[in-house]
């Protein structure tokens, strides 16, 4: 008897991959892996992006459960909620692909 595809499993995996599938989002994951938490301004400065674009990526990743945030005074600090994405990025670093 043939095994059927576990649709829930592959949908979950594809959801995470789609969420992090942008160079700046991978950069955000790297930064938040190195630093426990960072503000939008700090992340913007490290990545060299405009704040509106950084905020867009952060909001998307937060909405999808990759990141969390905490307000401290006037600042909002972001942190990795789904820490497993760090391992996923490390695995993908070892993949031999041609980037075009």
UniProtKB/TrEMBL annotation:
Keyword check for Transcription: yes
InterPro entries, per database record: ArsR-like_HTH, HTH_ArsR_DNA-bd_dom, Metal_resp_trans_reg, WH-like_DNA-bd_sf, WH_DNA-bd_sf
Gene3D superfamilies: Winged helix-like DNA-binding domain superfamily/Winged helix DNA-binding domain (1.10.10.10)
Molecular function terms from GO: DNA binding; DNA-binding transcription factor activity
Assigned keywords, A-Z: DNA-binding, Transcription, Transcription regulation
Taxonomic superkingdom: Bacteria
CDD domains to which the protein is assigned, alphabetical: HTH_ARSR (cd00090)
Transmembrane segments: none
Stored PANTHER family: ARSENICAL RESISTANCE OPERON REPRESSOR ARSR-RELATED (PTHR43132)
NCBIfam families: HTH_metalloreg
Name this protein carries in UniProt: ArsR family transcriptional regulator
Organism annotation: Roseivirga spongicola
């Amino acid at each position: 008897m043939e095994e059927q595809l576990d649709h829930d499993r592959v949908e979950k995996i594809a959801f995470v991959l789609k969420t992090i599938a942008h160079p700046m989002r991978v950069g955000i994951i790297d930064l938040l892996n190195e630093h426990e938490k960072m503000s939008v301004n700090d992340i913007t400065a490290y990545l060299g992006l405009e704040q509106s674009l950084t905020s867009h990526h952060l909001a998307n990743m937060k909405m999808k459960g990759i990141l969390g945030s905490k307000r401290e005074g006037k600042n909002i600090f972001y942190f990795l909620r789904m820490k497993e994405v760090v391992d996923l990025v490390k695995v993908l670093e070892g993949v031999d692909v041609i980037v075009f």
